[in-house]
Design goal:
Aldehyde Dehydrogenase, Chain A, domain 2; 2 domains; 20 strands; 7-stranded mixed β-sheet; alpha/beta; 6-stranded mixed β-sheet
C-alpha cells in the first residue's frame, strides 16, 4: 500500500501517524496519508515565510515563468493525477470525471499564469505623481474540499504564486493523496518552501482550525461547507486575516413554459448531476412551469437512464459513488423523507456500498428538506409552479446564493428574470459553467470574495499607494 508524504521546505516529510484514505467505489484503501501534528504545521508556515522573503521580490516576469513551469508539470502528469483522483474521490476517469478535472486544472493554471496586476498611475501632474501598487500578502493558507481535489488546489495555489505569495495547503482528509502528489510535482520546478503541503485526518487535532488562527498565515482561502466557513471566519478574526470563502449553495433553476423539453434535458441533467451532484454550483432545486412540467420530468428521467454508474476505474462508467459515508447517509436520509411527499421518477433506493443512483423526485412541496437543504449528491427535487413571480420568490428564499439559472427560448426574457435572482453567477439555458476569465463567488451565506480572473488575483494582494 502506497504511503504518501507531506512536502515542507521542499523536502518529503512523514508524520507521527498516518491514516487510510478509502476508495469509495470499493471500500479498500487507496493509500495512506500523513496525520500532521501542530508542530509540523508550524514548520510548514515557517518554511513558507522564509521562502516568501525572496519569492515576493521576484520580478513579475519571473513569477509568470515559474507559474508556466508549474502548468507544464500538471500537464505532463495529468493521467497519473487523474487516476489518483478517481481512486480516492470515486469520480470516473471518463465523462465529466477525473480526466475532465485535470483538463480544467491545466486550463486554470495556464490562464492564471498569464495574468498580471501592473502598477496603475492615478495621477501624474504638477501636483505630484500617485501610483497604485499591488503587494503580496505573505503566507497563504489553503483549505480544500473533497469534490475536486486537484482543480480546487490549482484555483487556490496558482493565484497565490502569481502574486508573489507562498502557500501552505491542507486538503480534505477524504481526498489528500492527489493534492500531496501535486505539491511534490510543483516542488520539482519551484524554490523550496514556496508551496508546502500538510494533511490531517479527523482526529482530535484540528489542523484546519489551527491554520485559520495561525499568526504566521496572512490569508485563508477556503472552499467547503457554510458551517465550516463560518468557523474559519471566526478563527481568522483574531489575526485580521484576509479571507476568500467559497461555500455551499442551494442553486435554483427556473424553467419557463416556452422550452423544448427534449432539447434541454441533457443540460438540465448535467446541471444537477455533474460530479454526482457533489458540486457547490450544481443545480439543487429545479422549478418547472406547469405547462411543461410533465414533459420536462419525462425527458429528464429518460436521459438520466442512459448514464452508466459504476466503479470509477471502469472506463465505461460516467458517474461513480458518493464520496464518503457521511454524505451518502445525508443524501439517503433526504431522499427517504421526500419519497412520501413526492413522486419518485427515477432512483430513490440506495445501492451497494456508497453507490446511490441518480434520483429525481417530482412535485415536492417547497418546505421539504430535500428542497430546503443542500443535498450535495445525486438527488434532484423538481417543483411545479404556475406563477413566475412565485417561482422567483421561492428561488431567492434561501440563505445561500452561489448560482442560478433560467431556461427559455426567449433569452432576453430569461436574462431579465434571472438578473433578479440573488446569486453570484447566473446562467441562461445552462447551469454551473465556469471559466478562468470570469470571477466566481457567492452572495449571502455562499461566500466572501471571488476567485478567477483579475478580480480573483487581486484578492491575494494588499494595495500600496505611493505619493511622490
Amino acid at each position: 500500500m502506497t504511503e504518501f508524504t507531506m512536502t515542507i521546505g521542499g523536502e518529503p516529510i512523514a508524520a507521527p501517524a498516518t491514516f487510510a484514505v478509502l476508495n469509495p467505489s470499493t471500500g479498500a484503501p487507496a493509500g495512506h496519508a500523513p496525520d500532521c501534528s501542530t508542530a509540523q504545521l508550524d514548520q510548514a508556515v515557517a518554511a513558507a515565510d522564509a521562502a516568501f522573503q525572496s519569492w515576493s521580490r521576484l520580478p513579475d516576469e519571473e513569477l509568470r515563468r515559474y507559474c508556466e513551469a508549474v502548468t507544464a508539470k500538471i500537464g505532463a502528469h495529468a493521467e497519473e493525477l487523474a487516476v489518483l483522483v478517481t481512486r480516492e474521490q470515486g469520480k470516473p476517469l471518463n465523462g465529466l470525471g477525473s480526466r475532465f478535472e485535470m483538463g480544467g486544472a491545466g486550463a486554470w493554471a495556464s490562464f492564471t499564469a498569464g495574468l498580471s496586476l501592473p502598477m496603475k498611475v492615478l495621477q501624474d501632474s504638477n501636483e505630484g505623481r500617485v501610483e497604485l501598487h499591488r503587494r503580496p500578502l505573505g503566507v497563504v493558507g489553503s483549505i480544500t474540499p473533497w469534490n475536486f481535489p486537484v482543480m480546487i488546489a490549482v484555483w487556490h495555489i496558482l493565484p497565490a504564486l502569481r502574486t508573489g505569495n507562498t502557500v501552505v495547503i491542507k486538503p480534505s482528509p477524504y481526498t489528500p493523496l492527489a493534492t500531496l502528489r501535486l505539491v511534490q510535482l510543483m516542488n520539482e520546478v519551484l524554490p523550496p518552501g514556496v508551496v508546502n503541503s500538510i494533511s490531517a485526518g479527523d482526529g482530535e487535532t484540528n489542523i484546519g482550525a489551527a491554520m485559520a488562527a495561525h499568526p504566521g498565515i496572512r490569508k485563508i482561502v477556503f472552499t467547503g461547507s457554510c458551517a465550516t466557513g463560518k468557523r474559519v471566519m471566526m478563527s481568522a478574526a483574531e489575526t485580521m486575516k484576509r479571507l476568500t470563502l467559497e461555500m455551499g449553495g442551494n442553486d435554483a433553476a427556473i424553467v419557463l413554459p416556452d422550452v423544448d423539453a427534449k432539447a434541454i434535458a441533457e443540460g438540465l441533467f448535467w446541471g444537477g448531476f455533474i460530479n454526482n451532484g457533489q458540486t457547490c454550483a450544481a443545480m439543487k432545486r429545479l422549478y418547472v412551469h406547469d405547462a411543461v412540467f410533465d414533459d420536462v420530468c419525462q425527458e429528464l428521467a429518460a436521459f438520466a437512464r442512459t448514464i452508466p454508474v459504476g466503479d470509477g476505474m471502469d472506463e465505461g462508467s460516467i458517474l461513480g459513488p458518493v464520496q464518503n459515508r457521511m454524505q451518502f447517509d445525508k443524501v439517503a436520509g433526504l431522499v427517504a423523507g421526500a419519497k412520501g411527499r413526492g413522486a419518485v421518477l427515477l432512483g430513490g433506493e440506495p445501492g451497494e456500498g456508497l453507490f446511490f443512483p441518480p434520483t429525481i423526485i417530482a412535485d415536492l412541496p417547497e418546505d421539504d428538506p430535500l428542497v430546503q437543504e443542500e443535498q450535495f449528491g445525486p438527488a434532484l427535487p423538481v417543483i411545479r409552479f404556475s406563477d413566475e413571480e412565485a417561482a422567483l420568490r421561492a428561488a431567492n428564499d434561501s440563505p445561500n446564493g452561489l448560482g442560478g439559472s433560467v431556461w427559455s427560448r426567449d433569452v432576453e426574457k430569461a436574462r431579465a428574470l434571472g438578473m433578479r435572482m440573488q446569486c453570484g453567477s447566473l446562467w441562461i439555458n445552462k447551469h454551473g459553467a465556469i471559466q478562468p476569465n470570469a470571477p466566481f463567488g457567492g452572495v449571502k451565506s455562499s461566500g466572501l470574495g471571488v476567485e478567477f480572473g483579475e478580480e480573483g488575483l487581486q484578492e491575494y494582494t494588499d494595495i500600496q499607494v505611493v505619493f511622490s
